[in-house]
Amino acid sequence: MHVSFTSEENDFQKEVNSFFNAKYPADIKDKQNKSVPLEKEDFIRWQKTLYEQGWAAPNWPVEYGGTGWTPVQKYIFANENAKANAPAIVPFGLGMVGPVIYTYGNEAQKKKFLPGILASDVWWCQGYSEPGSGSDLASLKMKAERAGNEYILNGTKTWTTLGHMADWIFCLVRTSSDVARRQEGISFILVDMSTEGVSVKPIITIEGDREVNEVHFENVKVPAENLIGEEGKGWTYGKVLLQHERTSIAGVARSQYRLSRLKEKIRNSDNTQPSLTGDSDFLKKIGQLEIELKALEFTELRTLAAVSVGKAPGPESSLLKIRGTEIQQKLDELFMEAAGYFSLPYVPQQYNLNSDPEEHVGFGADSVSSLVYFNNRKASIYGGSNEIQKNIIAKHVLGL
Amino acid sequence: MDLSISEEQSAIRDVISRFIENEYDFEKRMSIAEGDSAFDSDAYNFFVEQGFTAIPFSEEDGGLNGGPVETMLIMKEIGRGLVLEPYLENVILAGGVLKRLATDDQKSKWLSNIINGELQSTLAFTEPQSRFNLNDVATVAKDNGDKAIINGKKSFVLNGKEADIIIVPARTSGSQTEAEGISLFVVESDLPGISKNNYKTVDGHSASEITFKNVEINKDNLLGEIGKGYQTLESTIDDATLAVCAEATGIMKSLHDKTVEYSKNRVQFGLPIGGFQALQHRMVDTLMACEETESILLWALTTNQDDSSSLKKAISGLKYQIGIAGKHVGQEAVQLHGGMGISWELDIAHFFKRLSSIEILFGNADFHMKRFLTLSNN
Predict the structure, then answer these.
(1) How many CB pairs under 8 A join A and B?
(2) B143: helix, strand or coil
(3) Which CATH number do you get for residue B198?
(4) With contacts defined as CB-CB under 8 Å, which chain B residues touch A398?
(5) With an 8 Å Cβ cutoff, is B296 touching chain A?
(6) Could you tell me if B197 and B148 lie in one domain?
(7) Which of A130, A137, A220, B323 has CA 20 to 30 A from B286's CA?
(8) Do B63 and B35 share a domain, yes or no?
């Protein structure tokens, strides 16, 4: 029983580390370190850097441009990514629709879509939730009616993250209502966002930003060849995608990185900020979080160890999403608490790199700590809320 | 990266697990707990015969050179079977001090006999005033030529009634709470001046309040250097903490599994109560608490055993987790069993009581959080 790496794995870690040192653009790093929101262009530039290295899609099979990494190598890469404070891959193309297309799509679809996703040339968004269908996703109503070689789409998708930047959207749509179970009659279809009848309206979220959207479809004509797999089987394909989302959601390495930043902040070695090192109540919260994060880390390692030898992950893997997001949110809280009064000024404009630091309110990213806290309440809601996760665990793990 | 256990290791687990299944069921366990004896000699002999009392000792000492993983596997099963026999007291506590400090002569006199089951022993790690602070030692050993004279009182001495020898930390210099100046002596328990008040504990184990009044012992009974016993005391208690935490994870898993099972069979309002979402989510929470505790146990087990400050930190992190998650899982198991959860006849109550004892044993959650934070800041 040990958690050490082999010498090949250690070499790989060094290779990844030097890649991040050499190729991670300094200006993007600067934004990340100052909590300045990234532009679409930043994401694309970074993802293209990974693409050129051949590392854009660690989870894809080699034949479609994946890395062929072992589970441990993927783990090492994710850790180095977090340690460098590099942005996470925007998941909708590389993490979500790509795997659905190479798993269930036909040859023509693979050829048409996969290269653009891999190279981050085409930007995707996800059309799952609807105004009336959140946790109860199978109740979705958006219609796709077959007319010759086309489907006619009518309905509304919502909470569409980065939909205003996307070129394409993948949607779960209802192709038949005459079904025994609501999960039947749902299909998985790809839609070009520039098609007539598609309109994107912003939803401003709690922190004041536009991150998500409502996407309306009014008699949108989509070629029938854009349907993935069989008509009416979209629920199965869509679920596979959600499972992928769930396992990658724990964010252990990123939380570890943030915890170390938090400890640095409250240590305040340069004596310019209020110090919290004498606040035993606050220190205790950090200690508790550190132990919870250790539990999450070793839970992920247990899953990794099982997958590495070809076994299915055990029941422990089911808690990754729930506890992973809870820990992220506790970190958000602690950063805001640590910022004190300076978490309160609502001055989003100062998180523009061109703003004058002399005129900034608060220390470092203090005033953004509240915005992060408010925004990230989403973490326990998206990807199937944590309560839905508990329903799933109760049913599939506990057999209730 | 490998978090699996070897075939030899899983064989250890299987042997105890079969023993509990065939010869140490709940009824048997309760008859020992409610009887006059502290434990069942035949059951203890099983551990001796199987070589389990030899596991954590080096081959030179007549042991099997086992590590923390082997101990963990044994203790987990001890937890699942609610075993009362003094494996912890003899092998981890007294044996832990002896293996670290005893001379060859001392080892052949005491350690060998612990391994072969001839000798009952313990470590008196606490006093009435000291709570969880191992360095708070008011018991005094006075130099008297080739003898030392011990005066003081030790509390909650586990296995105190049966112990032939008691390892007694006593102050030979320094003030009451100084780490420096604590010496470890082997005290034969039939010496004049020793009086024991023996009792059973809430979890069916046995312990004693032991008073030492002008107890004269040979100076040969000093273990290690005079005044330098604290580090060994702390390391041994850390081993024991890890051991009872493993025991607790076994108990927590049993409580959780039994609760889920019960909820599938107990019908109220015409439905198995496990169908109610309010209860389902609570059982998912206890599942997560069990799995997280298992993960933290693995953290402690895979921490470099030679890196003492990392190891201490991991063990305090683990004991904190047991304090919090153990309480959570134990209380939920009782609550979800309803009235049955608080009846003496069901094992749930007894798992809960043992778990509650372990939460306090060797320092509660608050104590270990403070220690964890102190170690984090160094």
Answers:
(1) 115
(2) strand
(3) 2.40.110.10
(4) 260, 274, 280, 283-284, 287
(5) yes
(6) yes
(7) A137
(8) yes
* Last-in-domain residue among B191, B212, B228: B228
Domain range for B178 is 122-228
**Considering only CA atoms, which of B142, B230, B148 is closest in space to residue B183?**
B230
A residues 315-334 closer than 8 Å to B (CB): 315-316, 319, 322-323
Which residue, among A71, A4, A78, has the nearest Cα to A305 in the 3D structure? A71
Q: In which residue ranges of chain B is pLDDT below 70?
A: 378
Q: Let me know how many helices (H) and strands (E) chain A has, helices first.
A: 13, 8
Q: Is A239 helix (H, G, I), strand (E, B) or coil?
A: helix
Question: What is the C-alpha separation between A151 and A221, in angstroms, rounded?
Answer: 6
Q: Which of A298, A304, A326, A392 to mutate to test the interface with B (most CBs of B within 10 A)?
A: A298
Residue B164 amino acid letter: D
Q: What are A329-386's pLDDT values in tens digits?
A: 999 999 999 999 999 999 877 777 677 777 778 887 888 899 999 999 999 998 889 9
pLDDT (average), residues A148-161: 97
pLDDT digits (tens, 9 = 90+) for B130-158: 999 999 999 999 999 999 999 999 999 99
pLDDT tens-digit series, residues B201-240? 999 999 999 999 999 999 999 999 999 999 999 999 999 9
B301 vs A contacts (CB less than 8 Å)? 1
Which of chain A's residues have a Cβ under 8 Å away from the Cβ of B317? 290-291, 294
Residue identified by tokens 């072969």 is: B116
Q: Is residue B79 part of a domain?
A: yes
C-alpha span between A112 and A116 (Å, rounded): 8
Instruction: Give yes or no for B284 touching A (CB within 8 A).
Output: yes
B1 in a structural domain: no
Sign of CA dihedral B227, B233, B234, B236: positive
Contact B3 A296 (CB under 8 A): no
Cα–Cα distance, A277 to A271 (Å, whole number): 12
Task: Give the separation between CA A28 and CA A36, rounded to whole angstroms.
Answer: 9
In Å, what is the CA distance from A109 to each residue of A93, A113, A188, A229? 14, 6, 13, 10
Same domain, B196 and B222: yes
Give the minimum alpha-carbon distance from A41 to chain B in angstroms, rounded to a whole number: 38
**What pLDDT score was predicted for residue B372?**
97
C-alpha–C-alpha distance, residues A152 and A143, integer Å: 8
Distance from B297 to chain A by nearest Cα, in Å?
Answer: 9
Task: Say whether both B206 and B290 belong to one domain.
Answer: no
Rounded to whole angstroms, the Cα distance separating A189 from A234 reads: 8
Of B17, B153, B157, which is closest to residue B86 (Cα–Cα)?
Answer: B157
Neighbour tally for B271: CB within 10 Å: 10
Structure tokens at B25: 């069921």
Residue A97 DSSP label: I
Q: How far is A345 from chain B (nearest CA, A)?
A: 32
Residues of A in contact with B373 (CB under 8 A): 283-284, 287
* DSSP letters spanning A286-299: HHHHHHHHHHHHHH
Burial of A269 (0-12, 13-18, 19+ CB in 10 A): exposed
B76 and B148 belong to one structural domain: no
CA closest to A298 among chain B residues? B295
Contact B292 A390 (CB under 8 A): no
Backbone dihedral angles phi then psi of residue B123, each to the nearest 5 degrees: -120, 125
Indicate the residue among B228, B251, B266 that finishes a domain: B228
The DSSP element (H or E) to which B210 belongs, if any, is strand B206-218
Q: Enumerate the residues of chain A whose CB falls inside 8 A of the CB of residue B321.
A: 291, 295
The pair of structure tokens assigned to B241 is 């903490």
Q: Look at chain B and report how many structural domains it folds into.
A: 3
Domains of chain A: 7-89 (no CATH), 124-234 (2.40.110.10), 249-396 (1.20.140.10)
Same domain, yes or no: B64 and B161: no
